[in-house]
Amino acid sequence: MTERSLASVGERVFNFSPGPAVLPLEVLEQAQEELVSLPGVGMSVLEISHRSPAFDRILEETLAGLKGLLGIGADHEVIFLQGGASLQFSMVPMNLLRGQQAAADYILTGTWGVTGAKEARREGAVHVAWDCAATNYDRLPGPDEIRLSKDPAYVHVTSNETIQGVQWKHEPMVGGAPLVCDCSSDFLSRPIDVAKYGLIYACAQKNAGIAGVTAVIIRKDLLERSRDTLPTMLDYRTHVTNGSRPNTPPVFAVYILGLVCRWVRDTMGGLESMARHNAAKAKILYDILDSSAGFYAGHARPDCRSDMNVTFRLPNEGLEKEFVTAAAQRGLIDLKGHRSVGGIRASIYNAMPLEGVAALRDFMIDFQKTRQA
To answer: Which residue, of 41, 62, 130, 236, is most buried by count of CB atoms within 10 Å of its CB?
Structure first.
């Protein structure tokens, strides 16, 4: 596994944005090289028809790359949609909850889970199996804290909450209920046992590519729940039947997703290697938090910390503003935390190199020394 250095690419900064997020240099450079004309095609990927042989190959390669990385078997379908994870907050209950007698259970571990549950209530009964609002979503539940309803239509979790910085390391026990997961912010960052899930959805613009495409992995038997009363384009069956092309799909975004899958596999060594790499990056920053004698105070409790989004506070808001400004002057960009949590958020997705994390670490050490001197 190797990483390209940013030293030779001029003005690029270290982008800690929560999304759209940093992309691998190799992916950017290949897209740049092929932007004017795809090899053997004679036109740009931005121009080709979504029903052309050229896009057939792109779509096939992207699907194969995704299935290979995640080990997706014959029991699941993979489709590419638009609308981001936000549309899936509605599509999931429209397809899996509408007309069901049972409730949908939501385990609320942060902002995005709460938002998903709000949309689900438009379609049917929602049961909150656990909610950490009292401590602003700083931890995950223990197995004995989750209270599922009787025979839920599905159980929804958010694998990684970008705003609060908490991440599931293992799937919750949900009995025989279909497990539905918003995997947007740690998709392709680590292995996942797809067989344990009824449905997984993930927008691409954090770890897997650019805004515009959302991957949905759905167990085939769950397609039977979709009702004919659904709007055509909000019915998962429409997209499965038409191979993700009932209308013009986001061609360029699918192309970039395919390049990222290839990068994860060939350059980074696959998902197990990717997971070790991400954990090592996160440890660098958490070690600074833990050794700062309280100058940097993490939001998430240590046993629930995210490898993707490192969230923390400084002693006061004035110092936090200084931190963000001074960091930007050193090429460390988009570190301001979300308004609901405040403080600092360093998003260190797949493509953030060790070089960038090390630069942030060094800045954090220097900043503490100068402000405590």
So the answer is: 62
Catalytic residue check, 112 = yes
pLDDT in tens, 264-308: 999 999 999 999 999 999 999 999 999 999 999 999 999 999 999
206 part of the active site? yes
- pLDDT tops 70 at residue 17: yes
Catalytic residue among 182, 186, 307, 334: 182
CATH architecture, domain defined by 14-20+270-372? Alpha-Beta Complex (3.90)
Q: Give the CATH architecture of domain 29-266.
A: 3-Layer(aba) Sandwich (3.40)
67 a catalytic residue: no
Which string of b and e fits 299-322 if b means at least 16 CB within 10 Å? bbeeebbbbbbbbbbbeeeebbee
Q: Angle, to 10 degrees, between the axis of helix 271-290 and the axis of helix 354-372?
A: 0
The pLDDT of 148-161, averaged and rounded, is 97
pLDDT for 341: 87
Give the pLDDT mean for 252-274.
98
Q: Which of 138, 168, 186, 206 is catalytic?
A: 206
Q: Where are the beta strands (DSSP E) in the chain?
A: 14-15, 76-81, 104-108, 126-131, 154-158, 160-161, 166-167, 179-182, 199-203, 214-219, 297-298, 309-313, 332-333, 344-347
Domain spans of the chain?
14-20+270-372, 29-266
pTM over 0.85: yes
